[in-house]
Amino acid sequence: MLQPRMFQTLLQHFSPEIQRTSTRLLFGVSHALRHGHRCGLHQSKAALQNARERTLIAVKPDGVQRRLVGQIIHRFEQRGFKLVGLKMVQASHGILSEHYGELRTKPFFHSLLTYMSSGPLVVMVWEGHNVVQASRKMVGQTNPAEAPAGTIRGDFSVHVSRNVVHASDSQEGAQKEIQLWFQAKDLLDWDCCDQIYTIEV
Ligand code: UDP
Ligand code: MG
């Protein structure tokens, strides 16, 4: 097995940046091994419970066609949320009518369903502390004209009828939407190794 001293000697042949990164990695891994736990197991129950909040995010057909899927996923990863489910679907009017049931009487309802079924969606479930509220802020106002720069809609869209992304608007709504789009078996419970650094212990 490679001993720390041998490792440091080997590292001297590399640039200072590689030396710093490798040393950080070595000490992180050895700390985790010494303490013999899976990621984050020593966190308080309450912190973990809060961190289990989930929301439904969907890249709409305009976002998929414009190849924005990667950038949208990147924002949620970068923020510190955890992806627990993902699929690409061609949605039927049936599922969309249920998803947007509260808007049934709105004048734009029919065109909304036509737009949402015009091409594939990428539907995801993201998990993390306060994820419902935080993701609504990250997505920005429904009308992109009102969404500030820095939000997804504010950066990637201009019109309310083509606003790139969906995000659940409440914890209750999120639960309903997740059940509508995903079977429980398709959502993964997994330990993300950086969670001890992204939520309070
Ligand atoms: N929408 C529209 N015209 C409107 C308002 C809404 O086409 O005047 C569409 C838009 O795609 C929006 C979706 O209907 O994202 C759902 O509306 P909601 O009010 O739930 O907004 P959201 O929760 O998506 O911000
Ligand atoms: Mg909504």
Give a description of the structure:
The active site is at 166 (pros-phosphohistidine intermediate). Its EC number is 2.7.4.6. It is an enzyme of class 2 (transferase). It is found in: Cell projection, Lamellipodium; Cell projection, Ruffle; Cytoplasm; Mitochondrion intermembrane space. The structure is a single chain. This protein has 11 helices and 4 strands, in the order αααβααβααβααβαα. The model is unreliable at 23-37 (pLDDT under 50). It folds into 2 domains: 4-48, no CATH class; 52-197, Nucleoside diphosphate kinase-like domain (Alpha-Beta Plaits), CATH 3.30.70. Helix content is 47%, strand content 12%. Bound molecules: uridine-5'-diphosphate and magnesium ion. The site of uridine-5'-diphosphate has 9 residues, from loops.
Topology:
Blueprint: H1 4-11, H2 16-35, H3 45-51, E1 54-59, H4 61-65, H5 69-79, E2 82-89, H6 93-99, H7 109-116, E3 121-127, H8 131-139, H9 152-156, E4 165-167, H10 171-181, H11 195-198
Antiparallel strand pairs: 1-3, 1-4, 2-3
Bound molecules: uridine-5'-diphosphate and magnesium ion.
